[in-house]
Design goal:
mainly alpha, 50% helix, single chain, binds zinc ion
């Protein structure tokens, strides 16, 4: 967003200063469920060699669950203390959590045949992307090296605040969605695969 500001000089003449106001673009990279999912789809697309468009819903479910898994601490905080911030960004936002959950998710097919065989590395990258995005794109720290460090989000966030943030704060994911879409587009262009419609469907559905 630009603006023209009139500056009056000592001699009394005026010049127009067309310096552009710098908009803090971080407001469009606030990691929320939609943004985490978009980043996960980009990671999945780069990681997967084959065209997975035939398994659209399976892929989407898999990515949504794993990329948003660390925020289960918000749900636990709401149920136990009525405060979504109580445990938020604690142990579930750590390297160890990403590693252990990736191991469980990639071996889930051994217990339940309906769970697809998924690469442990891909599971790890999807969960880790959430922790990294939270840690790098916001000022509130995560507990990356838990149990060596433990952080949590300050303040109170009840059911209403959490639901409002997820439903009506989605515009703040715009930057992440655009960047993820560009990554998928370029990846498909380079690897000569058709452009997927997952993101466009997601955006339309908002
Ligand atoms: Zn989080």
């Amino acid at each position: 967003m630009g603006s023209g500001t009139v500056i009056v000089t000592e001699e009394g003449s005026s010049i127009t200063d067309f310096r552009f106001e710098i908009v803090d673009l971080r407001i469009f990279f606030m990691p929320l469920p939609l943004g985490h999912t978009a980043a996960g789809l980009a990671i999945h697309d780069v990681y997967s060699k084959s065209n997975t468009s035939g398994h659209l819903w399976k892929t989407l479910t898999f990515v949504v669950v794993l990329t948003n898994l660390p925020d289960i601490d918000v749900f636990i905080g709401l149920v136990v203390h009525g405060n979504g911030n109580f445990f938020h960004r604690g142990p579930t936002h750590s390297f160890l959590f990403a590693l252990s959950m990736a191991f469980i998710a990639s071996n889930g097919w051994r217990c339940w045949s309906k769970i697809p065989k998924i690469s442990g590395l891909l599971c790890f990258l999807l969960i880790l992307s959430h922790v990294m995005a939270d840690g790098l794109l916001t000022t509130s720290p995560v507990s990356f090296w838990w149990p060596l460090e433990l952080n949590s989000t300050v303040g109170h966030s009840g059911w209403r605040e959490v639901i409002e943030s997820v439903l009506f704060g989605a515009f703040r994911d715009l930057g992440t969605i655009v960047v993820s879409g560009v990554v998928i587009f370029l990846n498909r262009l380079i690897s000569h695969r058709p452009i997927p419609v997952i993101l466009s469907r997601l955006v339309k559905g908002r």
